[in-house]
Amino acid sequence: MEDLTSISEGARGGDAAAGAPSDDALLVLFANGDHGAARDLTGRLGPRCYSVAMRVLGNRAEAEDVAQEAMMRLWRMAPDWRPGQAKVSTWLYRVTLNLCMDLKRRKPHEALDAVPEPQDGAKTVPERIQEAARADALQAALMQLPERQRQAVVLRHIEELTNPEIAGIMDISVEAVESLTARGKRALAKALAGRREELGYEDD
Amino acid sequence: MTDKDTHLEQLFAAARRQGERLPDDLAARMLADAGTVLSERVHPVQERQRPSWRQVFDYLGGWRGMGGLATACAAGIWIGLAPPGFLPDPAELLIQPDATDLFSDLTLSELYVEEG
Questions:
Q1: CATH architecture of A1-114
Q2: Domain A119-204 - what CATH class?
Q3: Which parts of chain A sit beneath pLDDT 70?
Q4: What is the dihedral of CA B110, B114, B115, B116, to 10 degrees?
């Protein structure tokens, strides 16, 4: 069975690998009844949607619900999609963040139990523990940021999207994105300053 | 780049390495949803063509319409059985025993004689 759980480098960059159909083309195929296209889209977009939801919500179960609902909206929207009008991934990020905000409004609590399991089998146990501790510390610091700063930082520095793309997703100007990410990074650096040694980073 | 920035970049890099996998059961649920959406899109016409009491019910106005209809029926029956004083009794209008009974004062033997 094809691995749907990790994302290819080409897909992360926003463009399909050479020769592979674009997200647009896959969505049209799906709208025409091709279930195989759904498998490809889930493999490409599912991890991104889940990853963003988890970083923004800080809760694994809620992130799974949001990611599933976002993909459900993608399936339902497919017949109305106009290829070339916008990027499918941009649309999906926007839906995912809106669902996250809806959830936060309904359940205004902050959960910190959602650090992903280490996936790299080549690492030793102490390395994995340290990696998890680093991700845990980052997630805890992210959860202290205001909502919009957290979204912008996650999209820019974890999803590695460009500022114009983030501006499109968040429906703000590129300058506003730059301001949000700069303030977010300063706040994160401050929150994490006391934990460098504890997390295994030596002073240079 | 300051130490703080480097430290943060290292944390972001670690988060990127860890945040890229989709749980297997979540991927399966996403695909199952896609299958459901596709099957809904293929079969909706059959759903629409099937006549049902539900459609008749909806045509009559759903619960609200049917409630009004039932109340009107009950009121009609009640007025029929026990009409208020200012209305004529429908039972008397139908039967009218004395005014139209031409033979009420004749005996059976007299009727035989009349018909010869």
A1: Orthogonal Bundle (1.10)
A2: mainly alpha
A3: 1-18, 108-135, 195-204
A4: 100
* Average pLDDT of chain A, as a whole number: 82
Going from N- to C-terminal start, the domains of chain B cover 3-49, 53-115
- CA gyration radius, chain B: 41
User: Which of A62, A61, A25, A18 minimizes the C-alpha distance to A41?
Assistant: A25
8 Å CB contact of B29 and A68: yes
- Which tens digits make up the pLDDT trace of B76-116? 788 777 777 777 776 677 766 555 566 666 666 776 676 65
DSSP string, A12-70: HTTSPPTTSPPHHHHHHHHHTT-HHHHHHHHHHHHHHHHHHHHHHH--HHHHHHHHHHH
d(CA A117, CA A131): 10
pLDDT by residue (tens digit) across A30-60? 999 999 999 999 999 999 999 999 999 989 9
Nearest by Cα to A82 from A119, A27, A133, A36: A27
Give the closest-approach CA distance of B1 to chain A in angstroms.
Answer: 12
Nearest partner of A51 among A110, A6, A2, A9, judged by Cα: A6
Task: Name every residue whose Cβ is closer than 8 Å to that of residue B33 and which is 6 or more positions away in sequence.
Answer: A68, A71, A72, A75
> What ipTM is given for this predicted complex?
0.77
Of all residues in chain B, the one with the smallest CA distance to A79 is B41
Closest in B10, B15, B27 to A158, CB measured? B15
CA gap B64, A83 in Å, rounded: 45
Length of chain A: 204
- Indicate the domain borders of chain A: 1-114, 119-204
